[in-house]
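Methods — Computational structure assignment.
A single polypeptide chain was analysed. Its primary sequence is given first, followed by the predicted tertiary structure written as structure tokens.
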Amino acid sequence: MLVTHALIYLLLAPFIGGLVAGIDRKVTARMQGRAGPPLLQPFYDVGKLFEKENLVVTASQNVYALSYLVFMMVSGALFFAGGDLLLVIFAFTLSHIFLVLGAYASCSPYSFIGAERELLQIIAYEPMIIISAVGMYMVTRSFFVAEIAASSVPIILYLPGVFLGFLTVLTIKLRKSPFDLSTSHHAHQEIVKGVTTEFTGSNLGKIEIAHWYENVFLLGFIFLFFSFSIPVAVAAIIIVYLLEILVDNTFSRVTWQFTLRSAWIVAGMLGLVNLAVLYYLSGGFLV
């Protein structure tokens, strides 16, 4: 059954992720008083990318773009197969390392800046994701996604601070303002596209599809906090994503220093204090 879940993710995530991207664009346009593109526009865009010539500075960019997509698929498949959450996080982080390596391989100053900012974002959000995994272990006594999701314990009630911290870094992961430092999936006013500047054609298409896989994976992570009730979890996912769109259209981009402070001080402290309180209330033992 769990393997079936992984296969369903691999098959459906690109379609769900593409639709989410289309809804994102549509809602964003409405917030800005525009009609917006068609709901299926992300699919049209990716289709055009695969029709274009794939120009690369070095052949290794092809390998890195493909590796980024493959490891993003692997991390999501492991997650929805109910695998070890720490292994999932490792594969998830490794996928972004391949994206960074691809940007560095181009020897472009714009890509270099984008790659450095991508690394800064990894440094910013990674601790909070690990804190979230540790918190779920403290509540359910398991790192396995299947056991966490099957738990009848309302994790959100035990980990409200961790959840708020996760929401902070979720904005970074979704590449939305004010934390879209390395690249953005909206036009905004970019002349260049940061970490993806030197990717074109099918390689850029693979990166976009990987982003769709990533979005579905992240929405699944939110589900774990509310897994005690599927209707509540679905409602929470919708509310959180709409909130992310609102934040994206409300705040302007901040500096990388502010991003690190937000992720480490605000999100990190929320998470660590939550874990400390949970540990104390459990009498020094895991819940």
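Note: DSSP finds eleven helices and no strands in the chain.
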